[in-house]
Structures are given as structure tokens and as C-alpha cells.
Design goal:
α2 packs across α3. This protein has helices spanning 33-50, 77-89, 127-142, and strands at 23-30, 63-72, 95-104, 108-109, 116-123, 154-160, 167-176, 178-184, 191-198. Strands 1, 2, 3, 4, 5, 6, 7, 8 and 9 form a 9-stranded antiparallel beta sheet that branches. The chain is built from 3 helices and 9 strands, in the order βαβαβββαββββ. The chain has 201 residues and is of the alpha+beta class.
């Protein structure tokens, strides 16, 4: 496992709302700078054209959500170790991902808000990505973790107040070369990059 210095970015919250003051661990794929800016521009054009409310995530915070690992009252070494074993067990070559649709997920509760919010997302379409996510999930189960079998790989752009129907966008394609384990600090405002693993056969 390669340990990196702390790096902040946002996580599209599509799992059940986190218990108060819990620490969260999750797997994700970070976007390279060029792809992140392409996604940000596409999101900005769409939000402007539709007159949507909400603040777009910063380009450096964009990522593909993969698997939730754990919510804990305090961070512990055991799930981090198990996640590291699972990540190291996955073998797959770098692969291509294409983003060509923008839409909303169903409404979810957000802490401190009485109304539901609707994540505006770009689904990440790729048979190789689906295979990779499944392999990682299987490896997680093998190390005693629970995989998030229901998660659709996606990039969250913002949280809106109303749902948006699926709409095609100009395709954005990029190559996935590694994936990361992230620690979401208390309050959902700070994130720490714990580990990074390159994709290889």
C-alpha cells in the first residue's frame, strides 16, 4: 500500500446518512486534473442551462465512488488493515471509463436539513469498471468487510433541491490507473487520503 499525504476532496453521499460524529472509510477513484476540469465544465454548462441551484464541487474534489468500508465512532487500525489487504488482492489492468449521461439520484436525507436533496451525478459506464468494483467487493468480503453491492459507480457534481431527468452530454473518456482509500473526518468537511494502489495485471 502506498501511503500519501493528506488530500481533501468531497464524497458523494449515496449511502444511508452517517451516524452523528462517525468516522467514514471508503474506496474511490480520483480523476486526473484534465478530466476533472472537463467534468466540471460539463456540470457548469448543464447547471447554467437548467437554472439549477446548488454549488458544484471543486474539480480537485471530483471522484468515482466505489465502496463504503465502515462508519466508526473513532478511526481504528483493524478496518484500515483489512481494506489494505483487500485492495492489494485486486489485480486488473488500467481501463477506460466514459461519462456520457447526467442525471439525479433519488432524494436522500442530509444532516441539518428537513428537505431531501438530490445528488446530480455522472454515471461511470464501463464493463471493466463494473468488473473492478465487483472484484474489490469480493476481496473486501474475503478480509471480513462488507461490500457496498448496491452502489452505482458515479461522480457527484452537486446536491440539488429537485430531481433532474437523465440527459446525454458530450462523452468524456479517461483511463483509470489507480484507486484510493479515504478517511472522511468528523463533520463531512475534511478528508484524508490513506492509501493508493496502482492497477496492474
Amino acid at each position: 500500500m502506498q501511503v500519501a499525504a493528506q488530500q481533501s476532496f468531497d464524497f458523494g453521499e449515496t449511502f444511508s446518512e452517517r451516524p452523528k460524529n462517525a468516522e467514514r472509510l471508503f474506496f474511490a477513484i480520483l480523476l486526473d486534473a484534465v478530466t476533472a476540469h472537463q467534468v466540471n465544465r460539463a456540470g457548469h454548462r448543464f447547471v447554467t442551462a437548467k437554472g439549477l441551484a446548488g454549488r458544484l464541487h471543486e474539480p480537485e474534489r471530483l471522484h468515482i465512488s466505489l465502496h463504503h468500508v465502515a462508519d466508526l465512532p473513532r478511526l481504528r487500525s483493524k478496518p484500515i488493515y483489512a481494506a489494505g489487504l483487500a485492495a492489494a488482492a485486486v489485480s486488473q489492468r488500467p481501463f477506460e471509463v466514459t461519462l456520457n449521461v447526467i442525471k439525479s439520484f433519488g432524494g436522500i436525507p442530509r444532516r441539518g436539513l428537513r428537505r431531501l436533496q438530490y445528488p446530480l451525478i455522472l454515471p461511470a459506464e464501463s464493463a471493466s469498471l463494473a468488473s473492478f468494483q465487483a472484484r474489490l467487493g469480493t476481496a473486501m468480503v474475503g478480509t471480513g468487510l462488507r461490500a457496498s453491492g448496491h452502489v452505482v459507480p458515479h461522480i457527484t457534481l452537486l446536491y440539488g433541491d429537485a430531481p433532474v431527468a437523465a440527459e446525454a452530454i458530450e462523452p468524456i473518456s479517461f483511463t483509470v490507473r489507480d484507486f484510493v482509500l479515504v478517511h472522511s473526518l468528523r463533520g463531512l468537511s475534511r478528508y484524508e487520503l490513506i492509501g493508493r494502489w496502482p492497477l496492474r495485471a
